[in-house]
């Protein structure tokens, strides 16, 4: 497994495993505490694992947490997603930087997203399972949502949106969401 910095988002990393494939399929390590530690992260800091299943065109995001924020590891364990990270840390050298990745079951690449960054994704395959590992217990009172189509973000979503949650459909602009997050 190798770790690579994400240039557009300070502190973000891609963790790319080395799959071993044969006639049975493949095997790969999707988490390695030593590799995580090698980029300055505490592998024991991650407290909760979750998974979502989405159909093609489903969009989830853009989400972040207020307060101390939430760092996370994200991986598409089945199918393929278009994954988006936006740096919303005002003191970051990459403030408002954006990074886009296709994460898929073929590569099993994991993306580390630092606290203070917004995250969202769109399913590109008929079924896409996305796994999350977060560094603190989820508190819905700290959820912040930003409009996926905010012109300031100009995210190039690859497919028409087929479905999203009511919360995501009614999400405020980036400017309004940032005001709410400061409260």
From TrEMBL:
Keywords: Isomerase. It is an enzyme of class 5 (isomerase). Pfam families: dTDP_sugar_isom. It comes from the Bacteria. Its EC number is 5.1.3.13. InterPro entries: RmlC-like, RmlC-like_jellyroll, RmlC_Cupin_sf. Pathway: Carbohydrate biosynthesis; dTDP-L-rhamnose biosynthesis. One of its GO terms (cellular component) is cytosol. One of its GO terms (molecular function) is dTDP-4-dehydrorhamnose 3,5-epimerase activity. It catalyses: dTDP-4-dehydro-6-deoxy-alpha-D-glucose = dTDP-4-dehydro-beta-L-rhamnose. The keyword Thylakoid does not apply. The active site is at 63 (proton acceptor), 132 (proton donor). Signal peptide: none annotated. GO terms for biological process: dTDP-rhamnose biosynthetic process; polysaccharide biosynthetic process. The keyword Isomerase applies. Homodimer. Belongs to the dTDP-4-dehydrorhamnose 3,5-epimerase family. Catalyzes the epimerization of the C3' and C5'positions of dTDP-6-deoxy-D-xylo-4-hexulose, forming dTDP-6-deoxy-L-lyxo-4-hexulose. This is dTDP-4-dehydrorhamnose 3,5-epimerase. The lineage of its organism: Bacteria, Bacillati, Actinomycetota, Actinomycetes, Kitasatosporales. The gene is rfbC.
């Amino acid at each position: 497994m190798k770790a690579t910095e994400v240039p557009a988002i300070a502190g973000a990393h891609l963790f790319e495993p080395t799959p071993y494939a044969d006639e049975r399929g493949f095997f790969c390590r999707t988490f390695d505490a030593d590799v995580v530690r090698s980029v300055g992260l505490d592998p024991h800091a991650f407290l909760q694992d979750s998974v979502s299943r989405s159909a093609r065109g489903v969009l989830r995001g853009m989400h972040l947490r207020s307060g101390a924020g939430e760092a996370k590891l994200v991986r598409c364990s089945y199918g393929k997603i278009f994954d988006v990270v936006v740096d919303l840390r005002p003191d970051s050298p990459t403030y408002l930087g954006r990074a886009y990745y296709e994460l898929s079951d073929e590569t099993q690449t994991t993306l580390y997203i630092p606290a203070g960054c917004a995250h969202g994704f769109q399913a590109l395959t008929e079924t896409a399972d996305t796994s999350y590992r977060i560094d603190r217990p989820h508190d819905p009172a700290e959820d912040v949502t930003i409009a996926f189509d905010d012109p300031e973000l100009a995210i190039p979503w690859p497919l028409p949106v087929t479905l999203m949650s009511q919360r995501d459909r009614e999400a405020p602009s980036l400017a309004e969401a940032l005001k709410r997050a400061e409260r």
